[in-house]
Amino acid sequence: MKKIVLTGGGTAGHVTPNLALLPSLQERGYEIHYIGSYNGIERKLIEAAQIPYDGISSGKLRRYFDVKNFSDPFRVLKGYAEARRLIKKYKPDVVFSKGGFVSVPVVLAAKHYKIPTIIHESDMTPGLANKICIPSASKVCCNFPETLQYLPEDKAVLSGSPIRKELLSGDRLTGLQFTGLSAAKPIIMVIGGSLGAVAINNAVRSLLPKLLERYQVIHICGKGHLDDSLIGRSGYVQFEYVDAPLRHLFAAADMVISRAGANSICEILALRKPNILIPLSAAASRGDQILNARSFEKQGFSTVLEEEQVNNDTLYEAIQNTFDNRKSFIQAMEQSTLTDAVGIIMDLIASYAE
């Protein structure tokens, strides 16, 4: 039986592509182990999928001053020692890393034992953790054509992002029944990420009186961001978080408003949903979402509205234009070749696990 160790964590975006690979790995009979942090979000998600999980010490490597910069290197060293013990114990044929700082000790431990590692980089430019890991990797998969220039030519693979199969099997009628919305008006689904996006939430809610004249809204607003004053508002439903029924909500939606995290926009691409991307501002991030969004805009997949530009007028205009031109967005997305990331990555895994 072939063995694989999966790693990645810190955010849901560092875990969901691993989850997307699980059915194919299980179908091909791989023995699967997951190495993540002690108590990160990845632990809950992976254990829910009934995959053996081991936690290791993890520290963040920062480009800015923080008092934890003095203690976290010791956590990383401890994590490396723990990862080496686990890699020696499981003796995997291959390691697949989705990134995040917990992956660094695992990839370095795999290199120590000469075990091939495949890395997946979601964003346009590699993050710090993956930059550290790339020299130790056999192959580096990515989502965007523009990313290839940042990767070693002999390692780079344009794969797209693995998408959970169940997301592609949504039912529109089930989505309408779950939300209580009707088929009489178009439906906009608003997603702010796993933690929500206050700026997007506020902008959409401010525009609701005008928006609901023509559209209905499914609003996934993030934990702690429900607006009690809007409960029961006709044509508007809000959820803190949606798990299994999400595929049906996507099926019911005619258009999506979203942040521009790489995994989220790749799901939107796979589902062929006309969309407006409002990337996290450069002031609040390293600017990767802006680059992601601009790539999708350039390819004709998305309308982009930067957070600093969002107001009632600009948001409504973007919604109108995107909806009215939805066929051209769908057509562009249908021409994308990045639709079989699971197949591409599984072939890579198989080639190194031989």
Q: Element order, helices and strands? A: EHEHEHEHEHEEHEHEEHEHEHEHHH
Q: Give unreliable regions as ranges.
A: none
Structural class: alpha/beta
Percent of residues in beta strands: 15-25%
- The radius of gyration is 21 Å
Percent helix among the residues?
25-40%
Strand order of the largest sheet: 3-2-1-4-5-6-7
Query: How is the main sheet built?
Result: 7 strands, parallel
Note the gap between the termini: 11 Å
Instruction: Determine the number of helices (DSSP H or I, runs of at least 4 residues).
Output: 13
- Coarse morphology: elongated
In a few lines, what is going on in this structure?
This protein has 354 residues and is α/β, with parallel strands linked by helices. It is 40% helix and 16% strand. The protein has 13 helices and 13 strands.
What is the fold's blueprint, element by element?
Layout: E1 3-7, H1 16-27, E2 31-37, H2 41-48, E3 53-56, H3 72-90, E4 94-97, H4 103-112, E5 117-121, H5 128-133, E6 139-142, E7 156-158, H6 172-179, E8 187-191, H7 198-211, E9 216-220, E10 236-239, H8 246-252, E11 255-258, H9 262-271, E12 275-277, H10 288-298, E13 303-304, H11 312-324, H12 326-334, H13 341-353
Parallel strand pairs: 1-2, 1-4, 2-3, 4-5, 5-6, 6-7, 8-9, 8-11, 9-10, 11-12, 12-13
Helix pairs in contact: 3-4, 6-8
What do you see in this structure?
The protein is an alpha/beta fold and 354 residues long. It contains 13 helices and 13 strands. It has a seven-stranded parallel β-sheet, with helices on both faces. A six-stranded parallel β-sheet has the order 10-9-8-11-12-13, sandwiched between helices. Strand 4 (94-97), helix 4 (103-112) and strand 5 form a beta-alpha-beta unit.
